[in-house]
Amino acid sequence: MKLKKLAAIDIGSNSIRLLITNVIHEPSKNYTYYKKSSMTRLPIRLGADSFTKGKISEANRKRMLEAMVAYRAIMDVHGVQDFRACATSAMREASNGDLVVEQVKKQTGIEIEIIDGMEEARLIFESKMFDRLEPEEDRFLYIDVGGGSTELTVLENREIVVSRSFKIGTVRLLNEMDDPAEWKEMKKWIEANVKPGDDLAIIASGGNINKLHKMSGRKLTEPLTMRYLNSQDKLLSSYTRDERVTELGLNFDRADVIVHALRIYKTVMQWSHAKHMYVPKIGVSDGIVRDLYHRKYRRRIEK
Asked: What is the pTM of this model?
C-alpha cells in the first residue's frame, strides 16, 4: 500500500476551504482510494468586497492572511506532502488580487493561483463525480453555483462537450449586483447547447445544494426534483435569515445566501427542462486533489 497525503485550498467568494486527503494506492487491487482526512471551512466572504467595491478590503485581507497562516499550520501538523491553492471569481475581479497573492506567499509560502471559469469547471469534473452516482440518464448539464459565478457544463458520454462561466452567484444576488443581461445570456446559452429530453439530467455542486440535499434525507444516489426545490424555496422564504439559523440550524453565512442559490438552481432546471438533479457532494477542492495526484504522482506510484 502506497500513501500520499495531499491538500487543496479553494478560495471562493463566500468561504475558503482546506481539504486534506489521503491518496492510497493498493497494488494488489490496482486501485487508488481518496480518503478525506480533514476539511476546514472559514466564512471569509471575499466576494462581498470584490463585487461591491472592486477590491479586497483591508479587514478581509487580514482575515485571509490569518486563515492562510492557520491552513499552513494545519497542513504541517497533518504532514501534507503537497498541495495546490486556487482562487476563483472574487479574487479574479479584485483590483488588488495580485497584491493579496504576493502577501500570502511572502507570509506563508502558499502560492495562490487565480484560475478562470474554464479551469474551475475542469477541476470539478476531475473529481470523478460519476463514481458517486447511479444515473439512468445519458446526457447531463452540470451546474456549480458559487458566490460570484455559476459554471455550466454540458456532458455527453461522461465527456465535456462545452462549458461556460456566468457572473451570477449567491453573493452577487445578495448584494443586488447581478446583471439582467447576464441572466438573458445564460438562458440563451442553455437553449443553444442543451437539448431537452428524458435522457437529460442535472448534476449540481456547491455548498448550498449539498445542504439542501442533506435536508431532504435522500440517499446520495437519489436525485432532487423541481417539486422538492419549490417546497424548500417556499419553506426557506417563510423564515427570516435569523430564523433560518435558530429554527432550521443553518450557519449564519449559509442562511442569507441559500435562497439565492435556490433561485439559480431552479432557474437552470426550468430552462433546461431537466426532471432530476443529482447532488454528488463534490467540489473544486476534490478536483484539485485528484488533478494534483494525476499530474505529479500517479505515474510514479502506480507502476
From this structure: 0.86
